[in-house]
Design goal:
Elements (H helix, E strand, L loop, with lengths): L1 E5 L9 H15 L3 E10 L2 E6 L2 E7 L1 H10 L2 H10 L3 E5 L6 H12 L3 E6 L13 H18 L4 E4 L5 E2 L2 E5 L22 E6 L8 H13 L6 E6 L4 H13 L6 E5 L3 H10 L2 E3 L15 H9 L3 E3 L12 E3 L9 H10 L4 H9 L4 H13 L1
Parallel strand pairs: 1-2, 1-5, 5-6, 6-7, 7-9, 10-11, 10-13, 11-12, 13-14, 14-15
Antiparallel strand pairs: 2-3, 3-4, 8-9
Helix pairs in contact: 1-12, 4-5, 6-7, 9-11
């Protein structure tokens, strides 16, 4: 079946979301789907829309090009018609507006089946610290998202919601491309340090401030073991500055290290150094209590024990997961230290606990079942 994976943004090297999309695309193809990828490109200040390696619309440079990339979708409709596309898997970018509503309406008139993936839900609270431009986009989204949803056959969600915007959902988990994620090889260390690692495009819902505040409390008791937090990734500058200030005011700056984005061998080496992973500790801040995040799966695929505060059905009760309360209290770092020192988790065993269920091929097969049944 001729199919199209439709996204409304560009692909970026070493970006977690972009890597996820490529993994999903490859999984669809492994499952026998004849699927191409439609995306926006911005190279050398030129905006274009691509399908795989071919340009289907050239927008050019400047303000007009910026407007057209968000409003011109005739090229997509024409491609779908010309190539006889029968199925579209679209990744939602919180971009419901008159132009995207018109796009999906025209696609439905062509008889195309459309599944819409909403990566995080609910998401309105994620915009509370964003600038005016993003809040304006959310305002438009609120006005038009239910109208857009009328042309959607099914919503794919990683949440626990059965219905979103009046459309029935299919609940799946974020998956892992196990071939691209190396199992960590823990370093032998001669000191008494516990190395924590947090890898993310950092925002307030990651709750790293809770961990650093907990480290301040931990060091105030003059512990015998050092705890070092390795923060890997960029993200919201205001959130990063907030974390730095907590470390500075608490006198623990040497123990909180910021690396910026890392990938490849550099990232592998940091995981080899680390003893314990820090996943999201603040999802409750955006109104989410149950979610199947990509980060927890990446940690498990690496073979590293970790902590999180949300409920995740794939990891509830796993011995290598330490849950902390979903509130604003500082993380209990002494508890993390005790957890790390009193358990001996083997990376291969952690990874093997998810290999049979959380591959992208396994998860996307649930999406394609409707075509195979």
């Amino acid at each position: 079946m001729r199919s199209l994976f439709l996204i409304f943004h560009r692909l970026a090297p070493h970006n977690g979301i972009s890597n996820k999309i490529i993994c999903q695309l490859n999984a669809f193809r492994e499952l026998g789907m004849e699927m191409n990828l439609c995306y926006h490109s911005f190279e050398n200040s030129v905006h274009s829309r691509y399908v795989d390696e071919k340009i289907i619309k050239y927008y050019g440079k400047g303000l007009l090009a910026k407007i057209l990339k968000r409003t011109e979708y005739t090229s997509v409709v024409n491609y779908v018609k010309r190539e006889k596309i029968r199925y579209i898997y679209a990744r939602y970018d919180h971009n419901a507006n008159p132009f995207t509503v018109s796009l999906f309406k025209k696609l439905k008139r062509l008889g195309v089946r459309i599944d819409l993936e909403i990566p995080t839900y609910p998401y309105d609270s994620e915009y509370r610290e964003q600038g005016l431009k993003f809040r304006a986009e959310l305002f438009a989204d609120k006005l038009f998202r239910r109208r857009l949803a009328k042309y959607i056959d099914r919503i794919i969600t990683f949440s626990d919601y059965s219905v979103i915007f009046g459309v029935k959902t299919l609940k799946i988990s974020n998956g892992i491309d196990f071939l691209s994620v190396k199992v960590r090889k823990p370093e032998r260390k001669n000191d008494y340090a516990i190395n924590l690692i947090g890898v993310a495009d950092i925002h307030f819902w990651h709750g790293y401030d809770r961990l650093v505040s907990g480290m301040v409390n931990y060091y105030s008791d003059h512990p015998s073991r050092r705890v070092i937090f390795h923060i890997v990734g960029g993200g919201c500058k205001r959130e990063l500055e907030k974390i730095r200030k907590i470390a500075e005011s608490g006198g623990i700056t040497p123990y909180v290290i910021f690396y910026g984005p890392k990938s490849g061998e550099e990232l592998d080496n940091l995981f080899d150094l680390a003893d314990f992973g820090i996943a999201s500790l603040g999802r409750h801040r955006s109104g989410i209590t149950r979610i199947r995040t990509l980060k927890t799966r990446e940690y498990a695929a690496r073979g590293i024990p970790f902590t999180c505060s949300e409920q995740d059905d794939d990891f509830e009760g796993m011995p290598y997961v330490l849950k902390i309360p979903a509130d604003e209290s500082p993380a209990d770092v002494s508890r993390i230290v005790e957890f790390c020192t009193s358990n001996n988790f083997y990376p291969d065993q952690i990874r093997s606990s998810i290999e049979q269920t959380l591959s992208w091929k396994n998860q996307m097969s649930r999406v394609t079942e409707i075509f195979n049944s």
